[in-house]
Each structure stands twice: as structure tokens, then as C-alpha cells.
Write a structure and sequence with these properties.
With 396 residues, chain A is an alpha/beta fold. Chain A has helices spanning 11-22, 49-53, 59-62, 65-78, 133-143, 160-164, 171-179, 181-192, 214-221, 237-252, 298-301, 375-378, 381-395; strands at 2-7, 27-31, 82-83, 90-93, 99-102, 105-106, 119-125, 148-154, 201-205, 227-229, 256-259, 263-269, 272-280, 283-294, 304-306, 311-313, 363-365. Classes of the chains: A alpha/beta (396), B alpha+beta (537). At the A-B interface, helix 5, helix 11 and helix 12 of A face helix 7, helix 15, helix 16 and helix 17 of B. Bound molecules: flavin-adenine dinucleotide (2 copies).
Chain lengths: 396, 537
């Protein structure tokens, strides 16, 4: 018998698992896939917390403001390689070299030093997929008019065979190489080749993710100029690294992770969840627990399935909030469908959208499964998953 | 400016067909198109090369035209046509009397049909309903609208014909009851100028009455909107029609790796009213279920609507009632405004079908030739549309690219393949597939992006099929950015190009937003809104 079973090992599920394990709970995470963190850049946005809390149903409004702060602090204590302050944003770069902001970012991505720079050197690894140096250079010139921008093309022997046949090297592959023993030496060599023509030189590096790697951070601390990592087009090393770090943390605290199989159904008894049923090699296996957390990632994660006729929560058939109007005309503007999800009480337990009655006493809902928010227009994708996950783990 | 004897308004199948025909006869012609080629109905249809069987009962004239043209196009444009064959299937809901009537009518129109047993049919098309009563094979085929339109334009160009895209005919210019030119606006630069000519051909499809309206001549064109669904898979190997009087949602047309289902019919007030609606989608799914019982399990990747320009020649055609689009004849009308309205130098061509575009072009060109005193006869029924692709190009392509994309590329590019292949040879990286769903190489997209008649990301999409596959452009659109960038004087700012492109695709996705398509949409929104920080204005 487990203290808690968490269904879904994305950002929300893993944070919940880490917090609960740390509190001494015996926790199992069952996850079908890796979740959306692996597509993301690893930066986390919280959005305008005060304004979002004033929206009646927003997930932030379910929990106290200090819980949001606590979740954020907790994350940074877990991962000192990440930095951020609630209510303040940091600047980092999109893969196209335009600045963007987020609340918590890997320190290596922080672009603040550019404010005082006079020269930017854009590293241009040979044959790197989805990396467009000319576009980046122009965007940099627009945003940092005081700077000279130089492109610094380089190639390394490890990928020569790829270049010869025209095979592109993804940012992930470059990032993985830099983390290897030979990669570290090579990185030193490459950076040593950058000449400093003025003292306020800053180097911008795509396909490099130093968070969680001591040797890489050391290499960068020894360069005579600051090096800023760029985020990349998915899949990205930044998101992968964070995902791996979360998994490792969870395991190091004694948590158990069952990956690659989905929970097929939950055995119920009155208003309680009893067992999660997983099918392994064609045979159903049951895992029993005192409480459960549902962090199955909404539409993208697979926790919500939509057909031409209806939207359904896939595991328990929990009632969903489904907006009357489904879409609006501007693709990247507000989209009502994104608000589809489970309504919850202040303890994150699922409630009936009509009667607001709590449906299961020992089940909590976290992350993208919650109703009434849109990560892209509210700008709080990571924030909601992180804080609701943390709170669910705290309460488990 | 005096550029040519004839100005053609409209770059759909009909317009480019006329441009080619006239150019082959040595008559100088300039075509004006307000969007990109095939911007109108010619890219918003089933892509069915009719055998005529569908019209055999109701409109025998049309049926006969279709079967003739069907055979001609299979001869002259095999690379644009896939000779899949087609079936007419009678379900339990379809009347047996109609079946009898239909088989007779096909015989009268010389459309060869042959019956096959339902059990054999179910074996050949396992996804089809097992409840079909009778199945007849007909020589239907499928046609790639973009390809054939471009093939006509390129062929015309080889004969000296000219076309200008993103050029809108604003007004016809008249002198003493004679049309002498067209006041034209370049929509990209805003520049307005006058093109003079001896004859204007109005081939603007559903817009035809707008064109003649500019000089106060009424033209009775009804806008009949039809909505279609594109499924993510090739569900059938051949065209499947319901054997009943034409109705909504009863034709499935397979193209490469997708299938199109259509169509609905509803009169609308303007050709611009072409947003597919959810109700139309639901109606199609409901009706399509009779032939494809598992319809709900299949992913719909987009919905789109086209406008049939129906010409109501005959004022006592019954039913101006909004539901009766299908009862207006689909045969075309050639209107010589000299005879009809006493205005010289203006011919309108309205109605018809994609299948009969060549015939329509021939009739118009005959009339134009007669007026200009040209004796050269029409050759479009016999001369191949595609130039022969030299053997050395096939060989070169096969060496440089993976097997699957090679022939497709050669057919799309024709003589331009040479330069693309040379570029790949020079820089093998450009042989990488930029669009992995539709197998389009970086070099080909680069070529399309730099073509002088390409002005937007959407034009590249139409030419290369970039972004038409299952990822719906989430990945390949991003990958096309540096190619736009290299030609940035031609394009809007990247943010604007991206936003416009995404919003155009969104129009077709909105009414079919469920299942895997919805998941894909969530990812696309995440990538563009979050990773790339593209914002609505
Ligand atoms: C491309 C992209 C870019 C992003 N960029 C940013 C950004 O810049 N800033 C920001 O703040 N946020 C960003 N996000 C958003 C943020 O990453 C997500 O909001 C967050 O990761 C969602 O976490 P989650 O745990 O709620 O869901 P998910 O990560 O989707 O996790 C759900 C998990 O549940 C599993 N699952 C589903 N059903 C079952 C089942 N039946 N049994 C077992 N497991 C199951 C899934 O496999 C998945 O692993 C981005 C997201 C994407 C996709
Ligand atoms: C839903 C649907 C399904 C169909 N399915 C089939 C089928 O399967 N098989 C078949 O054979 N037929 C089919 N048809 C019919 C066929 O698509 C049309 O008959 C054919 O495409 C019409 O071609 P067009 O060149 O006459 O018109 P269009 O393709 O509409 O071309 C007219 C062009 O004129 C341009 N234009 C308009 N005004 C101006 C101006 N002022 N200046 C410059 N340019 C202008 C427009 O932008 C447009 O590109 C279908 C039609 C619909 C609506």
C-alpha cells in the first residue's frame, strides 16, 4: 500500500512527488509519457499572479497567494541552477534571437548582462538544425542597437561525418555532446578561439545547456566574457535537463517511478479512489494507495480526450468544465477550448461544475488538468503546474 | 500600357486554360489574378475528375462533356491525375428505381459502367460499409488542382503567355460601347494602372458579376458554397460516390495520403463567404457515416469551403430558394456581351466544372480567335501539358534525393528541377526534407520562396505542399523562415507572415478541432506563442 499514487509524471506530477516524498511519504508516480516539459525551453512563466488571482475560477484563485510564492521558492531551493523572483521577470532569448521573459529560468539563459554589452558574438555551430544565424543577428541588432553583432561560425570534428553527408545536427545533439568528456574539452577550445575586441563582449551560444552540469558551469566561469545560452526550437535540451533533474530528485528521495505505461482505470469505493490499474504485458496490475493525484496533462498530456461530440476526462470520467463557445478566430489569441478542465476546491479536490460538490475525498488534481486557464494568453504554463503540483504534494 | 491583345481576369483552372489555349494559337494574352493562382474555387474542390456518371440522370449534356474531357485530360496531363477509378454504391437508403434510371442514363451518355459484387467490393475497400446493395465501377479519377493550374500557367508561359498574380482588375474601361482595357491594381504595392487590350475575358468564377458590374452589366451568378473535409488518411483506394440523386456529403475522393469528403450546398451572398462552419462539418460526418461507418474514428485535418459559381441563364430555373443549389445546371455558359448587351470586346465564361476547364477554355478561345480573325485551331486536346522531363534529370534526382520524393518533385518543378538539383549537389544540406510530412526538400522551398510570383508563405505552401501534412505546418513553417528572410524585401515581417499563415490554417482547423488534431493544435500554439513568442496584434 502506497501513501500516494501520482498519475502523470510531467512537471505537476513530479513536483508533487518530490514534495510528498520529502515529507516522508511513500510515493509512486505512474506515467505514460514524458510530458510537455521536454518540448519546452525549461523556462517557467508565472504570469501576472495578482491579476490572474482576481479571475474567479483561475487555478491561482483556488489557492492562497503565499502558496504560489512558496511553490516558487521551493523550486529554487531544489534547483539552485534556476533563478527567479516572484513578480519579477528575467530576460532570455527565443530561438530567433528576440528577447522574451520568464519568471524562473536556468541561470545560464539569463540575458541581463546584455544591457551593458557593446559587442555580441553569436556562436554558429556548423549544420545546426533549426538555428538561423542571420535572423538572430538582425533581431539582436534591433533590440541592442548599441552592440556590434558578430557571427562566429565554428565546426567540431565530432560531427564532421554528419556534415559531409549534409545531415543536420540538432540542438539536443550538440548539447549532449558538450556534456560529454571530449565535449567539455572541445567547448573550452572553441571558446578560447573567440577573440575579444572590446571589453564588453558577450557570447551567445545556441545548443548549449549548462544547468545541472558542474563541469560545464566551470568551463563557462573561466571564460573572459559572459556566455548566454539560447533556448531552442523543440525538442530542447533545456526542457529535457529540467525533466531529468526532476526525475532524479524524486528518485533520490525514495520515490518510485513507473514509466511507459498508462493507468487504465481507477478502482473506486464510494467517494474514494482505491487502486490504480495498469496493464503490463497484457496483464492488469493493481496498485493501492491512500491518496491519489491526477496530473495527466489535459488535452496535450492525454488526460482529456475530445471527440467530435464531447470532451472526456480519460481515467475516471470526471465531469469537466467545457466552454460553450469552443474557438475564436485569432489562433494565438484567446481560445476558449483551452479552458476545458476539471474544476476543483481549495484543496484541489475535483468538484462537480454544477453543484460544486466534492467528488472524491482522496483525489487531487494538478497542472494542465485544472479548468479555467490558458497557458499562452495567461502566460503561466509552468506556474500553474508547478504551484498546483507542489500544493498537491504538500497536502498528500 | 498596351501589353497584349487579350486580358484574362481570373487565375483559376478556366483562366489559365484560356491563357494556354490563346498562347498556343499565337494570340498574345495577359492574365490577372487577385491572389495567387488557384486562389479561388480551383483549390477548394474535391479534386474529382468526373466521369460524368454523377450528372448522367439530371444533366446529360454535362455528363457527356465530362466523359470526353475525362479521357482527354488523362491523355494530356497524366502527371496531374491519378487514375483511381470510381464506384457508385447504393446503400439501403438509396432508391432502386434511381439505380435503373442511372444505368440507362450512363449508357446514353456513353459512360462505361460495370457492376461488381458487393462482396468483392468489400474486399477491395475494407473500410466501406458492408451494407451496400449494388456497386458500379466508373472511370472517375482524381486530379491535383494546384498542379494542373500551375502546369497550364507554365505551359502558357513557354508559348509567350503572361500572368500577374496579386493583381486585381478593378474596373473595365469602356469607350463607345467597347471594352478597351482594364484598370488594374497591384495589391502588393498599391499601384494602379491601366492595361489596354482588344478583348477582355472575364473568367473570374464566382466573382464574375462583380467584374461586369463595374460597367453596369448584370450577370446572373449564384454563389453556392460547398464545404469539404480532409481526412488524414487514404481511406479508400478509389473515388466512392453514393448512387442517388446528388446530395450532401456523398463523395469520398482519395488523394495521395488523404481523403476528401464533400460536399454541402448553400447559397451565400458573396464569394468571400467561404469559412467552413461547424454545422456543415457535422452534417458531412453524419451523411458520410452511411458509406464509411467508422468515420468518427478518423482524424479530420481540416475543413474548407469553395464557392460554385452557378450561372442562372434561364430565369425560370425553379427554386431561387437557398437549398436548391444542386438543381441549377452545372454546364457552363459563354456569354458574348456583344450579342447579349451590345458591349463589344467582352466575353464572360461562367459555371462549369473543373473537369471541363479545357473545353470551356477552347470555346472561349475559339470565340476570341474568331473576333481577332485568327485561323489557328485549338491544340490543347492533344498536346501534352507537361514538357518531357529529360532522362538526365531523373537520374540526377535519383542520385541526390531519397526515392519517395523524387518523382513528386520533378512533376512539381518540371524544367525548374535542374536548378534545384544543382543546388542540392552544391550543398547537400539542402537535400534535407524541410517538410517531413510532405517530403519537400529545403532546396525546393528555397526555389519557391525566391520565385518572382511568390509573395507570401501561403504561396509557398500552395506550390510545394509545405505545411499541408499532419503537422499542419507547426515544424516546417518555422524551417521556411530563413528562406523568407533571404528574400525579405518581398515578404512582410516574419512575425506577420507567421501570424497570417497560422490564422489562415486555423480557419480550416477550427470546425474540426477534436482528437489528435486538437492535441497537435495545442502543441502548435505552445511552440508559436511560447517558444517563439509570436503574438496577435
Ligand atoms: C512547446 C511548449 C513550450 C512551453 N513553454 C513554456 C514556457 O516557456 N514557460 C512556461 O511556463 N511553460 C511553458 N510550457 C508549459 C509547461 O511546460 C506545461 O504547462 C507544463 O509542463 C504542464 O505540466 P503538467 O504536468 O500539467 O502536464 P504534462 O507535462 O502534459 O504531463 C502529463 C503527464 O501525464 C501522463 N499521462 C496522461 N495520461 C496518463 C495516464 N492515463 N496514465 C499515466 N500517465 C498519463 C502524460 O504522458 C504526461 O507525461 C510549454 C509547453 C510546451 C508544450
Ligand atoms: C465544394 C466544391 C466541390 C467541387 N468539386 C468538383 C469536383 O470534384 N470536380 C470538378 O470537376 N469540379 C468541382 N467543382 C467545381 C470546380 O471547382 C469549379 O467549377 C472550378 O474550379 C471553377 O474554376 P474557375 O477558374 O472558373 O473559377 P475560380 O477557380 O474561382 O477562379 C476565378 C479566379 O478569379 C479571381 N478573380 C476574381 N475576381 C478578380 C478580379 N477582379 N481581378 C483578378 N482576379 C479575380 C479569383 O481570385 C479566382 O482565383 C467543385 C466546386 C465546389 C465549390
Amino acid at each position: 500500500m502506497w501513501d500516494g499514487i501520482i498519475i502523470g509524471g510531467g512537471l505537476a506530477g513530479l513536483i508533487a512527488g518530490i514534495r510528498a516524498s520529502e515529507r516522508g511519504k511513500h510515493v509512486l508516480i505512474i506515467s505514460e509519457g514524458a510530458g510537455s516539459l521536454t518540448y519546452s525551453s525549461g523556462a517557467l512563466n508565472f504570469g501576472d499572479v495578482v491579476q490572474l488571482r482576481s479571475r474567479e475560477n483561475h487555478p491561482y484563485a483556488l489557492i492562497e497567494e503565499n502558496v504560489i510564492q512558496a511553490g516558487m521558492d521551493y523550486f529554487q531551493k531544489l534547483f539552485p541552477d534556476y533563478q527567479g523572483v516572484c513578480g519579477r521577470t528575467q530576460t532570455l532569448f527565443t530561438p530567433l534571437g528576440s528577447p522574451r521573459t520568464a519568471n524562473i529560468i536556468p541561470s545560464g539563459q539569463n540575458a541581463a548582462v546584455l544591457q551593458d554589452a557593446k559587442r555580441i558574438v553569436l556562436m554558429a555551430p556548423e549544420g545546426m538544425k533549426d538555428f538561423f544565424s542571420k535572423i538572430i543577428k538582425t533581431n539582436l541588432k534591433i533590440c541592442y542597437p548599441q552592440c556590434i553583432v558578430d557571427i562566429y561560425p565554428f565546426r567540431i570534428s565530432a560531427f564532421e561525418a554528419w556534415h559531409a553527408i549534409g545531415k543536420p545536427v540538432t540542438g539536443m545533439e550538440y548539447a549532449r555532446y558538450w556534456q560529454s568528456g571530449p565535449g567539455i574539452a572541445e567547448l573550452k577550445r572553441v571558446l578560447a578561439g573567440v577573440t575579444i575586441t572590446c571589453s564588453e563582449t558577450v557570447v551567445l551560444f545556441p545548443g548549449l545547456a549548462t544547468a545541472f552540469s558542474e563541469p560545464l558551469k566551470e568551463v563557462l566561469s573561466e571564460t573572459p566574457f559572459p556566455v548566454i545560452e539560447m533556448t531552442s526550437f523543440p525538442p530542447s535540451a533545456g526542457g529535457h535537463n529540467l525533466y531529468n533533474a526532476l526525475k532524479q530528485k524524486f528518485k533520490s528521495l525514495g520515490g518510485e517511478l513507473l514509466m511507459g505505461t498508462g493507468v487504465q482505470r481507477i478502482e473506486l469505493q464510494e467517494k474514494e479512489c482505491r487502486k490504480a490499474i495498469v496493464s503490463s504485458k497484457g496483464r492488469p496490475t493493481a496498485f493501492a494507495a491512500h491518496s491519489f493525484i491526477l496530473a495527466t496533462g489535459g488535452i496535450l498530456g492525454g488526460g482529456i480526450e475530445v471527440t467530435a461530440e464531447a470532451a472526456q476526462e480519460t481515467l475516471l470520467g470526471l465531469p469537466l468544465y467545457v466552454p460553450a463557445e469552443w474557438t475564436k478566430s485569432e489562433f494565438l489569441g484567446e481560445q476558449p477550448y483551452a479552458h476545458t478542465g476539471i474544476e476543483a476546491d481549495s484543496d484541489l479536490r475535483p468538484v462537480d461544475p454544477g453543484t460544486k460538490e466534492v467528488l472524491f475525498e482522496n483525489l487531487r488534481v494538478a497542472g494542465r488538468m485544472l479548468a479555467h486557464w490558458d497557458p499562452w494568453t495567461d502566460n503561466c504554463g509552468g506556474g500553474v503546474s508547478l504551484t498546483s503540483g507542489w500544493y498537491a504534494g504538500e497536502k498528500l | 500600357m498596351k501589353e497584349s491583345k487579350v486580358v484574362i481576369i481570373g487565375g483559376g483552372a478556366t483562366g489559365v486554360g484560356i491563357l494556354r489555349d490563346l498562347s498556343m494559337r499565337g494570340i498574345s494574352a495577359l492574365l490577372l489574378e487577385q491572389g495567387d493562382l488557384a486562389h479561388g474555387t480551383s483549390s477548394r474542390f474535391h479534386g474529382l475528375l468526373h466521369s460524368g456518371a454523377r450528372y448522367a440522370v439530371k444533366d446529360p449534356g454535362s455528363a457527356a462533356e465530362c466523359i470526353d474531357e475525362n479521357l482527354i485530360l488523362k491523355q494530356i496531363a497524366p502527371h496531374c491525375i491519378s487514375d483511381t477509378g470510381g464506384w457508385f454504391v447504393q446503400t439501403r437508403d438509396d432508391s432502386p428505381e434511381y439505380v435503373e434510371q442511372w444505368t440507362k442514363a450512363c449508357a446514353n451518355a456513353h459512360i462505361p459502367i460495370s457492376e461488381i459484387s458487393p462482396s468483392e467490393a468489400c474486399r477491395k475497400e475494407p473500410l466501406m460499409s458492408k451494407d451496400v446493395l449494388r456497386v458500379f465501377e466508373v472511370p472517375d479519377a482524381t486530379v491535383d488542382g494546384f498542379k494542373i493550374v500551375w502546369a497550364n500557367a507554365k505551359s502558357a508561359k513557354r508559348y509567350g503567355g503572361q500572368f500577374k498574380t496579386y493583381h486585381q482588375a478593378k474596373r473595365l474601361i469602356m469607350e463607345n460601347n467597347r471594352v478597351v482595357g482594364v484598370s488594374t491594381k497591384n495589391l502588393l504595392t498599391g499601384e494602379e494602372f491601366m492595361v489596354s487590350c482588344d478583348i477582355v475575358v472575364n473568367a473570374s468564377g464566382a466573382w464574375a458579376s462583380h467584374v461586369t458590374g463595374s460597367i453596369g452589366i448584370p450577370l446572373d451568378v449564384i454563389c453556392d458554397k460547398g464545404t469539404l473535409l480532409a481526412f488524414n488518411q487514404r481511406l479508400f483506394q478509389r473515388v466512392i460516390n453514393r448512387l442517388r440523386p446528388s446530395g450532401d456529403g456523398d463523395i469520398f475522393v482519395p488523394h495521395e495520403t488523404i481523403t476528401i469528403l464533400g460536399t454541402t450546398s448553400e447559397f451565400v451572398d458573396s464569394p468571400e463567404e467561404n469559412d467552413p462552419q461547424e454545422e456543415e462539418v457535422n452534417k458531412l460526418l453524419e451523411i458520410g457515416r452511411h458509406v464509411l461507418p467508422g468515420i468518427m474514428k478518423n482524424r479530420v485535418i481540416r475543413a474548407f469551403s469553395g464557392i460554385r459559381p452557378l450561372h442562372r441563364e434561364d430565369h425560370d430555373v425553379p427554386g431561387v430558394n437557398k437549398e436548391e443549389g444542386r438543381n441549377v445546371s452545372r454546364s457552363f455558359a459563354l456569354i458574348d456581351h456583344e450579342l447579349q448587351d451590345g458591349i463589344q470586346g467582352l466575353i464572360s465564361i461562367v459555371g462549369g466544372k473543373f473537369t471541363t476547364y479545357r473545353l470551356m477554355a477552347e470555346k472561349v478561345s475559339d470565340r476570341v480567335a474568331e473576333k481577332l480573325g485568327s485561323m489557328t485551331p485549338c491544340r490543347t486536346a492533344t498536346e501534352d501539358l507537361l514538357p518531357v522531363i529529360p532522362e538526365h534529370l531523373h537520374k540526377k534526382a535519383a542520385q541526390l534525393l531519397p526515392y519517395a520524393p523524387v518523382e513528386k518533385m520533378l512533376e512539381r518543378l518540371q524544367e525548374d528541377a535542374e536548378s534545384v538539383l544543382t543546388e542540392i549537389q552544391r550543398d547537400p544540406r539542402k537535400g534535407q526534407m524541410l517538410c517531413e510530412c510532405e517530403m519537400v526538400s529545403a532546396a525546393e522551398v528555397e526555389k519557391a520562396a525566391s520565385d518572382e510570383d511568390t509573395h507570401h508563405l501561403a504561396d509557398i505552401r500552395r506550390k510545394t505542399r509545405l505545411g499541408m501534412g499532419t503537422c499542419q505546418g507547426a515544424f516546417c513553417t518555422y524551417r521556411a523562415l530563413p528562406l523568407l528572410w533571404d528574400k525579405k524585401e518581398k515578404y512582410d515581417a516574419l512575425q506577420d507572415e507567421l501570424r497570417n499563415f497560422l490564422n489562415q490554417r486555423w480557419k480550416g482547423i477550427r470546425p474540426v478541432l477534436w482528437g489528435q488534431q486538437l492535441r497537435e493544435t495545442e502543441l502548435t500554439r505552445a511552440i508559436y506563442a511560447s517558444i517563439l513568442q509570436v503574438r496577435e496584434n
